[in-house]
């Protein structure tokens, strides 16, 4: 990270604006030379959120076109620049998602705003490709308690979807999920459940009835039912989520069971963090129930062990694998699960050697 006051950064008649707040800026990044800040705090915030990942790419994107009279050369430069801009949009999208999964909502904002600005340049100001950026900004503001700002971004997302005939079910499920989050956060539980039901419908249409994507909607619905003091309904939904994840992770484990090499990571960081938070939350709920279900708790611990094994964190895989092994003791009818736990522990110990 590097920035300095550059007296030549603001030539007469040209205003440089802060990357984060759009106020007049004189502090310039000395690496890319194209990004400006009004103060060092904003520069540090942007660097942490996304700028360190895209600084060299910005240099390349802003490189002037080579002087040439050939139309083919100009077209090639334009095509390459567009490709780099799309890559920049992708990086900003992934970084914003990563911060959301970690619930570091203040760090989401610079990455999500960058995502939105460059998506507008690449796709246009009314394109459906802007919706994921609006939703990330809404999630960050929900997490920060800025509900009016979240509502504003969601209104823009809804308007964009409405203006896009044949919008994909993926976008629709993400929109309804974020709307549900806002309603749940503001205590509008009936509206939240309606939005999450729509989320589940579109996710199931896109990914299937047994998908882990769809089960995320069930998980959020369960949280609302808990707030309504309806633990029995919440437990039923949690069971659906747990079964979906356990089945999915077992299938992934089958692919490495015969391999002598370390498994490739099946999840990116954001996916792993989100799945871990979900499964741990359900496991804690099961352990606090008046009528504990050791078989269900063992299955959840086994799921967490598989998740971390597939994310190449063998220490955590062993931790949860041993927890599952303890929980399964004395349950004679769980022979298949006991064997799966035993095999996982063998894999984790082997990779740690």
UniProtKB/TrEMBL annotation:
Q: Which residues form the MYND-type domain?
A: 18-55
**Keywords recorded for this protein, A-Z:** Metal-binding, Zinc, Zinc-finger
Any GO MF annotation of the entry: zinc ion binding
Q: Which InterPro entries match?
A: TPR-like_helical_dom_sf, Zinc_finger_MYND_domain, Znf_MYND
Q: Which domain of life is it from?
A: Eukaryota
User: One Pfam family this chain carries?
Assistant: zf-MYND
Q: Which PROSITE patterns match?
A: ZF_MYND_1, ZF_MYND_2
Which Gene3D superfamilies is this protein grouped with?
6.10.140.2220, Tetratricopeptide repeat domain
Name the PANTHER family on file: ZINC FINGER MYND DOMAIN-CONTAINING PROTEIN 12
What is this protein's name? MYND-type domain-containing protein
């Amino acid at each position: 990270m590097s920035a300095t006051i550059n007296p030549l950064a603001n030539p007469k008649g040209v205003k440089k604006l802060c990357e984060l707040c759009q106020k007049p800026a004189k502090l310039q990044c000395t690496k890319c030379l194209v990004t400006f800040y009004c103060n060092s705090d904003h520069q540090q915030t942007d660097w942490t959120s996304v700028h360190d990942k895209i600084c060299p790419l910005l240099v390349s994107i802003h490189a002037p076109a080579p002087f040439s009279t050939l139309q083919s050369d100009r077209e090639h430069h334009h095509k390459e620049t567009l490709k780099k801009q799309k890559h920049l949009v992708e990086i900003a999208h992934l970084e914003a998602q990563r911060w959301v999964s970690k619930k570091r909502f203040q760090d989401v904002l610079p990455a999500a705003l960058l995502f939105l600005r460059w998506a507008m340049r690449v796709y246009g100001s009314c394109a459906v490709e802007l919706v994921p950026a609006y939703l990330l900004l809404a999630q960050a503001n929900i997490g920060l308690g800025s509900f009016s700002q979240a509502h504003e971004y969601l209104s823009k997302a809804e308007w964009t979807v409405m203006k896009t005939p044949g919008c994909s079910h993926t976008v629709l499920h993400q929109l309804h999920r974020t709307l549900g989050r806002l309603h749940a956060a503001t205590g509008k539980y009936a509206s939240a459940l309606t939005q999450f039901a729509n989320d589940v419908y579109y996710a199931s249409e896109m990914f299937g009835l047994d998908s882990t994507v769809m089960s995320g909607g069930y998980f959020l619905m369960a949280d609302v039912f808990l707030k309504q003091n309806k633990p029995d309904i919440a437990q039923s939904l949690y069971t659906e989520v747990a079964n979906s994840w356990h089945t999915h992770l077992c299938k992934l484990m089958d692919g490495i069971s015969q391999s002598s090499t370390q498994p490739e990571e099946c999840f990116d960081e954001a996916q792993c963090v989100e799945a871990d938070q979900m499964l741990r939350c359900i496991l804690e709920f099961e352990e606090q129930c008046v009528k504990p279900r050791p078989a269900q708790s063992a299955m959840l611990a086994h799921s967490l062990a598989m998740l971390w094994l597939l994310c190449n964190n063998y220490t955590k895989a062993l931790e949860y694998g041993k927890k599952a092994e303890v929980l399964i003791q004395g349950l004679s009818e769980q022979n298949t699960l006991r064997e799966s736990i035993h095999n996982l522990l063998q894999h984790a110990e082997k990779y740690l050697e």
